[in-house]
Design a protein that fits this description.
The complex is a heterotrimer of chains A (342), B (259) and C (254). Chain A has 342 residues and is α/β, with parallel strands linked by helices. Helices cover 51% and strands 17% of the residues of chain A. Chain A folds into 2 domains: 36-119 and 226-341, 3-Layer(aba) Sandwich (D-Maltodextrin-Binding Protein, domain 2); 122-222, D-Maltodextrin-Binding Protein, domain 2 (3-Layer(aba) Sandwich). In chain A, strands 2-1-3-10-4-11 form a 6-stranded mixed beta sheet, sandwiched between helices. Chain A has a 5-stranded mixed beta sheet with strand order 7-6-8-5-9, with helices on both faces. In chain A, helix 7 links the parallel strand 6 (146-149) and strand 7 (176-179). In chain A, helix 2 crosses helix 12 (242-261) and helix 9 crosses helix 14 (278-287). The termini of chain A are far apart. The two termini of chain B are 27 Å apart. By secondary structure, chain B is mainly α. Chain B is globular. Chain B folds into 2 domains: 1-33; 42-258, MetI-like fold. In chain B, helix 5 (110-117) crosses helix 6 (121-145) and helix 7 crosses helix 8. Chain B has helices at residues 2-32, 41-50, 52-86, 88-101, 110-117, 121-145, 149-157, 163-198, 207-216, 221-250, 252-258. Helices cover 35% and strands 26% of the residues of chain C. Chain C has helices spanning 47-55, 94-98, 100-105, 109-122, 138-151, 168-185, 196-202, 233-247; strands spanning 3-16, 19-32, 36-40, 62-67, 70-71, 79-82, 156-160, 188-193, 205-209, 216-221. The chains are: A alpha/beta (342), B mainly alpha (259), C alpha/beta (254). The A-B interface holds A 1, 4, 8, 11-12, 15-16, 19-20, 23, 26, 80-81, 83-84, 87, 103-104, 107-109, 146, 151-154, 176, 178-180, 188, 191, 193-194, 314, 316-317, 320 and B 8, 12, 15-16, 19-20, 23, 27, 31-32, 34-37, 50, 114-115, 118-119, 200-201, 204, 213-214, 216-221.
């Protein structure tokens, strides 16, 4: 009997020691010189600026003088998984919709939006067979249907929810919203597994070209000038590497102005990196209602609206934790941008 | 005397359990202090209370997917196991195919499942079916293959002429413990596939669905861990119920042999 | 002469890596009604193969086996068999083991239990009806096997070294009980063994077999009245004779 209790004590002690050691490893974040930078992005024409800077070697060029030896670009199908990685500390900078980081901030993400990337640019696509119904009944035609979009916490999900609510449709009970990435959603509408999708370009155009859908609304007509993509920087970047961050924003501005001036080359770069058809991408850029931007101030108003909508959708949980709707200072930090642009 | 013996017996598993819970709470609350990295167990238990309205439909839907998968796996695996276990040519013919399909992880079947069954309960059930099928099949046909020759011949000399009688009166009762074990393992694997099956948006509720489609994307880690615990607990309950009804009742005769 | 079982020129060939092996060579044997006949031979002489062919679990390569004048084709409860290994169905209680053959034959339940009770009592296991095989000793298991084989009222009882797995004392006891059961039921018994002592104790007649290819060297009538003393002079004389017969064929036996 004595042997058993001693064994239990030793076992428990060993577990305790192991746990403390694991925790110690997590905590050993002393600010070291940064040599690698991790940039997150998504396969959308909204974020071509990131791809242009990458393809033209501008990231490496501009950041090498700050000691950066390696630039790692990490692709995510949509914002929420990208923010999950950022919560885990895997990303220093992220190209992402405005909504996912806000949802993550409600759960404690230490980051801020430091620059804009793009507004509008998502489309509601419905199956060709349902086009007539939509013409007659408008949004109410979507009652009882299955709609695929990005996961909860994303711009697309938030825009869709807001639009449904504004039209008297309950997103929880009147429709069947399924979360998936862009390629899964394109497959789903092609296989008639869902009736509609709300996705950022270029996927809507790709679906139309494959004959699997009809674009009936652009997000800009659902919610004019709504912010879409932005550039988010981790708290660590802002506090420990402000000069590096400023350069990143400068490079971003340069890439944004370039893509605005050279849309055909932008389409080529996207097509090359994403294995897509250049003419399809070019067409998508032309028909989409998106605007490439770099000024974060433009995104503040709709950003605050997202913060309100997300709060509403999760009010029980946030109220329990004593959280309030996030304000401008919680979400945005335009100081870096303002310093650069004077 | 009796009380201390009872305490010692319960203590063996109860004490480490309590210590682990306390350790979790202390490490999460005072060492890590990051609810995203490790939610406190007090927060997790509170979440279970908060989520109680969602929990019941989610559990029912997951059990539905689970039942579809396991029942189907059993209905397909058992006849196949009889054929493979009793008729050597059948075994030799089919076993290579089984051995190729078996190692394919159930998750890898998801794209096919979505294409075949669309995003319905059947797609989810299918993934669970794949998970449960092979353990049930292999456990069962092993039972049939292992029937001792002397028992088969005893059956023959007592009047069981023909495969049907021999299978029914000799092979099947002999193989029943192996079938039960295979089914139990199959159910375990099947339940582990519930999250995988549901995370791809098949349906609108279910433990895996909500864990992956809602809690994960909104980074609500305490809800995630709460659902993880529920998943584990349900697996335990299902296993214990199965063991009680099958092993304690049907297989009383085996108890004496195994000890 | 009333012969229960007739074996005529039974030969058995086996295929092996070395080609064809003759296991049994022209066996001719006749078993009288209610006779207790022992087949005695060294290991590997083919005596088990012979018994299995009588049971219908195997087939002769040439020759024929006749029970009550009819050719044996395949196993049947008509030829009850007790195997050397423990052969009780572990998932059935003692009484359910014994009623097994009756159940397959379609006898109704009440009747099944009636008959089974009788034989369970006959083998001295009254009170153990609800026990499971794993709760029984080796000797008890074989007793149940005997009861089970007898329950279907077979024309002949075949036994393949049924007491080989139990210890010496139990074996002696079981042999004694077997003789009592045989006396009460008046069954024809064909008993295979490699033990000279066992054969002398039990048999009316002993068919002595040679080593492979198995032949019947001779059939010896044992006229010692029962109950027999294992160490009597007559028994010793017969033992000597048998050992010489077996020894002269250069094989191991006990």
């Amino acid at each position: 009997m004595r042997g058993r209790s001693i064994t239990s004590v030793i076992a428990i002690g060993a577990i305790a020691v192991a746990m403390v050691m694991i925790v110690g490893c997590i905590d050993s974040e002393t600010p070291v010189e940064m040599t690698t930078i991790h940039i997150g992005y998504q396969p959308s024409t909204h974020q071509i600026a990131a791809m242009v800077a990458y393809e033209k070697g501008w990231w490496e060029e501009d950041l090498s003088s700050f000691g950066i030896e390696e630039v790692v670009m990490k692709e995510f199908p949509s914002g929420p998984p990208e923010m999950h990685a950022m919560l885990a500390g895997d990303l220093d900078v992220a190209y992402v919709g405005v909504a996912p980081p806000i949802a993550a901030m409600y759960e404690g993400l230490d980051a801020k939006i430091v620059a804009g990337a793009q507004t509008q640019g998502s489309a509601l696509v419905i199956r060709p067979e349902l086009a007539e119904e939509y013409e007659r009944e408008g949004p109410l035609a979507l009652k009882g249907k299955a709609i695929a979009t990005f996961p909860p916490g994303s711009i697309q999900h938030t825009v869709l929810s807001k639009w449904l609510l504004d039209n008297g449709i309950d997103p929880e009970t009147d429709v069947d919203i399924k979360a998936m990435g862009p390629s899964d959603a394109a497959t789903a509408i092609g296989a008639k597994t869902v009736d509609a999708v709300l996705l950022p370009s270029p996927t809507p155009t790709i679906i139309v070209e494959e004959g699997n859908g009809v674009i009936v609304e652009w997000s800009g007509s659902i919610w004019p000038d709504h912010a879409c993509c932005c550039v988010v920087a981790s708290g660590e970047m802002m506090r420990d590497h402000p000069e590096l961050l400023k350069q990143i924003i400068k490079t971003h501005i340069r890439a944004t102005e370039y893509e605005i001036a050279h849309p055909e080359e932008a389409a080529e770069i996207y097509a090359k990196l994403q294995n897509a058809d250049t003419s399809t991408i070019m067409h998508s850029i032309n028909v989409s209602d998106m605007h490439w931007i770099h000024d974060p101030h433009v995104e503040v108003e709709s950003g605050l609206e997202y913060a309100r909508v997300i709060y509403e959708l999760n009010s029980e949980r946030y109220e329990e934790r004593g959280l309030e709707v996030l304000g401008e200072e919680d979400i945005f930090d335009t100081s870096f941008y303002d310093e650069i642009t004077g | 005397m009796k009380i201390s013996a009872a305490i010692k017996e319960k203590g063996l598993w109860l004490v480490p359990l309590i210590v682990t819970i306390l350790l979790w709470e202390v490490v999460a609350g005072y060492v890590i202090k990051n609810p995203l990295l490790l939610p406190r167990i007090s927060a997790v238990i509170h979440s279970i209370y908060t989520l109680r309205a969602l929990l019941v439909p989610d559990i029912l839907v997951s059990l539905l997917h689970f039942s579809i998968g396991v029942v189907l796996a059993f209905l397909v695996a058992l006849p196949l196991a009889v054929a493979m276990g009793w008729f050597e040519p059948v075994f030799k013919a089919i076993d290579p195919i089984i051995e190729i399909l078996r190692p394919i992880p159930p998750l890898a079947w998801i794209p096919l499942a979505i294409v075949w069954f669309h995003l319905t309960h059947y797609a989810a059930g299918f993934i669970i079916f794949i998970g449960a099928f092979f353990p049930i099949l292999i456990g069962s046909y092993t039972g049939f293959r292992d029937v001792p020759r002397v028992l088969v011949e005893t059956g023959k000399v007592l009047g069981c002429i023909g495969n049907r009688k021999l299978i029914r009166y000799v092979a099947f009762p002999y193989a029943l413990p192996a079938i039960a074990t295979g089914t139990r393992v199959g159910m375990g694997v099947g339940w582990m596939c519930v999250v995988a099956a549901e995370m791809f948006g098949v349906g609108n509720s279910g433990l895996g669905y909500r864990l992956f489609q809602k809690f994960y994307f909104l980074h609500q880690m305490d809800y995630v861990v709460a659902y993880m615990l529920i998943l584990g607990l349900l697996a335990l309950i299902i296993d214990r119920v199965f063991r009680h009804f099958v092993e304690d009742e049907l297989l009383r005769w085996k108890k004496g042999i195994v000890k | 002469m009333n012969h229960k079982l007739k074996l005529r020129n039974v030969t058995k060939m086996f295929k092996s890596e070395e080609g064809e092996i003759k296991a049994l060579d022209s066996i001719n044997l006749e078993v009288k009604v209610s006779e207790f006949l022992c087949i005695l031979g060294p290991s590997g002489c083919g005596k088990t193969s012979l018994l299995r062919m009588v049971a219908g679990l195997d087939y002769p390569s040439s020759g024929e086996i006749l029970l009550d004048g009819e050719t044996v084709r395949g196993p049947s409860p008509d030829r009850g068999m007790v195997f050397q290994e423990y052969s009780l169905f572990p998932w059935r209680t003692v009484i359910k083991n014994v009623t097994f053959g009756l159940k397959i034959q379609g006898v109704d339940q009440e009747h099944q239990y009636e008959i089974a009770e009788r034989y369970i009592e006959l083998v001295g296991l009254k009170g153990f009806e609800q026990s499971y095989p794993h709760e029984l000793s080796g000797g008890m298991k074989q007793r149940v096997a005997i009861a089970r084989a007898l329950a279907t009222d077979p024309a002949i009882l075949l036994m393949d070294e049924p007491f080989g797995s139990v210890d010496a004392q139990t074996r002696n006891l079981l042999q004694k009980e077997l003789l009592e059961i045989w006396k009460r039921t008046e069954k024809t018994v064909l008993f295979v063994t490699h033990s000279v002592d066992e054969a002398i104790y039990l048999a009316d007649r002993i068919a002595v077999m040679s080593a492979r290819p198995g032949r019947i060297i001779t059939c010896m009538d044992i006229e010692i009245p029962r109950p027999r003393k294992r160490t009597s002079m007559e028994a010793n004389e017969i033992r000597e004779q048998l050992l010489k017969l077996l020894g002269s064929n250069n094989q191991k036996t006990t």
